[in-house]
Amino acid sequence: MNKPVPPGLLLVGVGTMLTSMVVAGFVLGYFTDVWLDSSPIFMLVFGGLGLVGGILKVYRLLARTAW
Amino acid sequence: MSAEQSSGGGTVEYIQHHLTNLCAGECDPVTHAANGFFAWHLDTIFVSLLLALTIVFVGWRVGRNLNPNTPGRFQNLIEGIVEFVSGQVRDTFPGHNPLIAPLALTIFLWVWLMNFMDMIPVDLLPLIAGWFGIHYFKAVPTTDLNTTLAMSLTVFLLIIFYSIKVKGPVGYLKMFLFHPFGKFLVPVNIVMTLIEELAKPLSLALRLFGNLFAGELVFLLIALIGGTAAIGVAMALMLPLQAVLDLGWLIFHLLVITLQAFIFMVLTIVYLGMAHTDDH
User: Fold this and answer.
1) Spatial separation of the C-alpha atoms in residues B23 and B29, rounded to whole Å
2) Which is deepest, B89, B149, B153, B192, by most CB within 10 Å?
3) Which candidate from A1, A5, A61 shows the least CB-CB separation from B278?
4) Tell me: the pLDDT tens digits for B33-62?
5) Domain locations in chain B?
6) Segment A34-58, tens digit of pLDDT
7) Is-catalytic flag, B203?
């Protein structure tokens, strides 16, 4: 099941993955800010967290591929 | 009416008319836009079903007349497409699932054919439909968000189905709970993974819709160049300009529709491939 796949087109999914994670972080932070009235602290924190998470996810995806 | 026309309402009307679907059911009687859940875009349904039947019929004909020794040119073309798609699936898809390659082939052919309706002159099909008393006819099914969303939602359901099937219900839940930050930020993980998953079908549908809708709009604008030129000297300048622009955009758009069909297919394979891996 977990045979290493050639990277090839798997890379197509990377863009969506990274961006959606960053966007998800910002959305989450925005609503936390609205809730706690603390703009813009959480938006920045979760935005950064989203970026880190996105990179982490992409790294894990690519670590599986056979370069 | 007259005020509308004097302020360039004619061109706006022309474009809006071309971008209006033939709606049946709960539709707005003035704008012909869908006005409720049970609104049917008959032209979209008709054209997409017609193209699907075309694929089935051609596939059936070719399959029946297969000639292994001396394949004809058409059989060669079909074999080339099938080989190409199954090659992509082999390269990208981990594990084994006999559903994926036929699914990818269907998506590629169907989306490409639906996109190809864009190549038909923008006024031709509405004109023919007009002879039969149909006043609204939008020929390209992929310029209707309903088509693209329906396809991407089908893919989305397949993603969920195979995720649960391969990872198990617990494994699927774990993906939401413990990704990407481990067990210390569970609420953040849930929201982030949820948005990421929902972004898949949304981006799939909106990418295709946006590209084709914009392409159709450019065709309409090019068609307006000659249509709005005053009769006389202006025509001598405008008509060649329209022809050149139309040809250029047509050739470029041929690339776009192929690319969009290809991307939709590849992303389907990639997303389903992700659903088929254990350690997400």
Assistant:
1) 10
2) B192
3) A1
4) 888 888 899 999 999 999 999 999 999 998
5) 3-275
6) 999 888 888 999 899 889 988 888 8
7) yes
Subunit contact B274:A13, Cβ cutoff 8 A: yes
Domain residue spans of chain A: 13-63
Residue B48: the pLDDT is 95
Residue B188's pLDDT is 82
Residues A27, A19: Cα–Cα separation, whole Å: 12
Contact between B118 and B219 (Cβ < 8 Å): yes
Q: Which two tokens stand for residue B10?
A: 């004619």
Mutate to test the interface with B, among A2, A5, A9 (most CBs of B within 10 A): A9
B168 touches chain A (CB under 8 A): no
Task: Give me the amino acid identity at A7.
Answer: P
Q: How far apart are CA B213 and CA B202, in angstroms?
A: 16
What integer pLDDT is reported at residue B8 of this predicted model? 53
Rounded to two decimals, the pTM is 0.85
For residue A25, the chain B residues in CB contact (below 8 A) are: 192
For chain B, which residues score pLDDT lower than 70? Answer: 1-9, 227-232, 278-280
Q: Which residue is listed with tokens 């709960």?
A: B26
Question: Measured between alpha carbons, how far is B225 from B216 in angstroms, rounded to an integer?
Answer: 15
Q: Can you give the pLDDT at residue A65?
A: 65
> What are the distances in angstroms from CA B163 to CA A40, B56, B61, B279?
36, 30, 36, 11
The residues with which B145 forms a beta bridge, in sequence order, are: none
Which ranges of chain B does DSSP label H, i.e. alpha helix? Answer: 2-6, 9-18, 42-64, 73-92, 100-116, 124-131, 145-177, 186-228, 233-275
